[in-house]
Amino acid sequence: MGIEILGLPLMYYIAMVVKVLVAFVFVLLTVAYATYAERKIIGHMQVRLGPMRTGWHGLLQPIADGVKLFFKEEIIPSQASTFAFLIAPLIALIPAFITFAVIPFGGTIEIAGYKIPLQVAAYYDTAAGQVFDVNVGVLYVLAMSSLGVYGIVLAGWASNSKYSLMGGLRASAQMISYELSAGLSIIAVFMLSGTLSLTKIVELQSGLGGFEWYIFKQPLAAFIFFICSLAEINRTPFDLPEAETELVSGFCTEYSSMKYAMFFMAEYANMVTVCALTATLFLGGWNGPLATAIPLLGPVYFVAKVYFLMFACMWIRATLPRYRYDQLMHLGWKVFIPVALLNIVVTGIIGFFI
Q1: Cα 123 from chain centre
Q2: Whose CA, among 28, 147, 216, 223, lies 20 to 30 Å from 354?
């Protein structure tokens, strides 16, 4: 028998550490180079070149930006609430990273006779012969994404600046408005799958050669969820909490150095998580041709879907202007919520007769 610790094999702990490191490094590198990719993509869409001077075609630009921000002067306003001012960037950043723990980025692989599910918060029970994960994974994601807005609100209040406070208030109102629509939209997915487990939701989309995706059954829900998620993470055209033309830089106006960088790391990490969750719920997750037969294809399909959705986010930013605040609230309360409720009713009626 192999070595066991607290009743679990040593391979379980090794696999867990490796999965945490892989997920963390993936999100961190994606966040770093998403800033570069966005500047290049939007540049080419606007007939510009984007970053070109730092490394070949500007490939070292994220590193240069990180070094610059790390060595910039750290400024704390004299009238700020110091503790809340310092802790706010962490409150925004940490939930953005830990949300990724419940998202399956592949199937189950076998190493040295031990089966390892490619999901951080999951393990394979040899006795039961199945994978166990967080069976309310979607609720966990929604809960963690809701925590991030506290960092933004706290930053706006603690800065003791009218611009920052206005940005924080806008962020809280926007989160309340659009999280309701996003939550209602994915109820249709739960009605189809009968589970809140992200692993099982992905497995249920594995038919038809890996193309039995819920986006074909619930295109309206997928559209509402993706757009509402953009509003939740303050992406253009819903970037009212920052709104440089009105509020200087919104909730992070008074921040500098790495604390300023942490807010933008949180925004891009949230974008990665939102795209990963959309891919999981509506695009079959890691499913695709031969993904079941060749397990290592699963992560490739998953990453490709995530990057495609991130490209869509950048395309939207390059194309659409920012909404006015009244338009933002009108879209959330008078359009998305009624349509999401109607979609639930229609899904229920169709499910009852079929």
Answers
A1: 23
A2: 223
